[in-house]
Amino acid sequence: MAKYDDGFKRKVVEAYQNGEGGYGTLAQRFGISHFSLVRKWVKIVEKRGFEALQRRRTKQHYTSQFKQNVLHYYLNSGDSYLDVALQYGLPSGDLLQSWHQKFLREGI
Asked: I need a labelling partner for 9 at 20 to 30 A (CA). Which of 3, 37, 91, 100 fits?
């Protein structure tokens, strides 16, 4: 997957906020591989602001208990990976998805 810089993401989200098109239209206009990336960036900005689009410079470590709490919430809420990740301050739904897959393979 291509990495997009913070300024590019901001430009795409601002275009969405200005009513310049929907997720698919903007993905096509800006040459983004899939509309879901645009949707993800918009959701992140709506929940946590533009600062949340910036890449973290240091690796974050999470306790086992924290991961269990997040997974428990995810499994019982019916929310998407991204929605739960945003609620718990995780950088992406992909991280939660990897925890979930590991849980399914290996258990707690």
From this structure: 100
Instruction: Report how far residue 46's alpha carbon sits from residue 83's, in angstroms, rounded to the nearest whole number.
Output: 11
Q: Which helix (H) or strand (E) holds 14?
A: helix 6-17
Q: How far apart are CA 32 and CA 23, in angstroms?
A: 10
**DSSP code of 54?**
S
Q: What is the chain's pLDDT, residue by residue, as a tens digit (108 residues)?
A: 457 888 999 999 999 999 999 999 999 999 998 898 899 899 889 888 888 777 766 678 899 999 999 999 999 999 999 889 888 888 888 889 999 999 889 887
Distances (CA, A) of 15 to 23, 52, 56: 10, 17, 24
d(CA 70, CA 82): 12
Q: What angle do CA 79, 82, 84 make, to 5 degrees?
A: 50
| The two structure tokens encoding residue 20 | 């310049």
